[in-house]
Amino acid sequence: MEKLRLTVLGSGTSSGVPTIGCTCDVCRSDDPRDKRLRPSVLLSHSDRRIVIDTTPDFRMQALRSGMERLDAVVFTHAHADHILGLDDVRPFNYRQQQHIPIYLTDTTFKTVRRIFDYVFDERPHDSVVPKLEVNIITEESFDVLGLRFTPIPLRHGRTEVFGFRIGGLAYLTDHGDIPESSLSLLQGLDVLFLDALRYKPHPTHSTVSQSVETALKVAARRTYFTHMCHDVGHEAGQASLPEGIFLAYDGLVLDIDNE
User: Fold this and answer.
1) Which SS3 state, helix, strand or coil, does residue 237 take?
2) Pairing state between β 142-144 and 222-226
3) Do 83 and 53 touch, CB atoms closer than 8 A?
4) Cα(227)–Cα(117) distance, rounded to whole angstroms?
C-alpha cells in the first residue's frame, strides 16, 4: 500500500514562535527548528493534497512548502489559529478551476460561516471569494479523496475538538486530557502527533510531561509533539525526551505506513 506523506506546515502555538515583543532565548534562537508557525499539517497521497487546518500563516506555509495544489481541507475546530487562513485557498481555486471540499463539524461550520460570511452568502461580489464544498462531519469515520479519516474526540478546555486517525497516523492538536474512549482508537499507530504546549500546567492544553505519559501509554512507533510555545526550545527539549518521542518542527516530512 502506498505510504502517506505528512509535512508539518506549522508546529507552534496560537501566537507562533518567536512571540511578538519577546526577547527570551527561544524567541531569539538561531535554530530554524525554533521558528514555529501556527499548527497545521499537509497530507500527500498519490497526487492528492489535503491540509488539516488553515492557519493565519497558511499563505506562507503553502509557499514555503512548495504546495502547488490543494484538494481538500479538514478542520479540527474553529479557533482563530486554525481557521483564519481560509481565504487563501483562492489561488488553488484559480489554478484547479474547481471547488475545494472542506470537512468540519456543524459547530465549527457555524463559526466559519459567521467569520467568512461573504464566502457563503448568495449576494453578487465585486471580487473573487473562495469556492468551497461544505461537508459536515460527526464522530463517524468519513472518506476524503480515498483516505479514511476517523475522528478522535478531544477536550480543549470547554471546547470539544477533533483529532483524526488516518491509517497508521493520528494527528491530535489542541487537547488536554484524552478520554479513555479516544485512547482506545489509537492502538497500532506508526506515527502519533500530540499537543505539548509547554512545561507548566495549562487549563486547556497538554504539557510536555503529560504528553510523554500519553505517548508511552499509546506506544506508537514514533510520537511527535506539536503546538509548542516559546517555553520549549528544540535542542534542549529534544534531549530530555525518551527514545521514540520527538519534537516536531516546521518543514518536517514523514512517510507513514497507511494501514
Assistant:
1) helix
2) unpaired
3) yes
4) 28
Instruction: Give the C-alpha separation, 72 to 107, whole Å.
Output: 19
Residue whose entry in the numeric block shows the C-alpha cell 504546549: 197
CB-based contact 206:197 (threshold 8 Å): yes
**Is 1's pLDDT higher than 90?**
no
pLDDT in tens, 50-105: 999 999 999 999 999 999 999 999 999 999 999 999 999 999 999 999 999 999 99
Q: Is the pTM of this model over 0.85?
A: yes
Domain residues for the domain of 17 are 4-256
Task: Label residue 144 exposed, middle or buried (CB < 10 Å: 0-12, 13-18, 19+).
Answer: buried
CA dihedral 28, 30, 175, 238 (to 10 degrees): -120
Burial (0-12, 13-18, 19+ Cβ within 10 Å), 64: middle
The DSSP bridge pattern shows strands 132-136 and 100-104 to be parallel
CA distance 23 to 14: 18
Residue 2: pLDDT band (50, 70, 90) is confident
Q: What is the CATH number of the domain that holds 74?
A: 3.60.15.10
| pLDDT tens figures, 24-34 | 999 999 999 99
Closest CA to 15 of 81, 102, 108, 109: 81
Q: Total domain count for the chain? A: 1
Tens digits of residue pLDDT in 94-115: 999 999 999 999 999 999 999 9
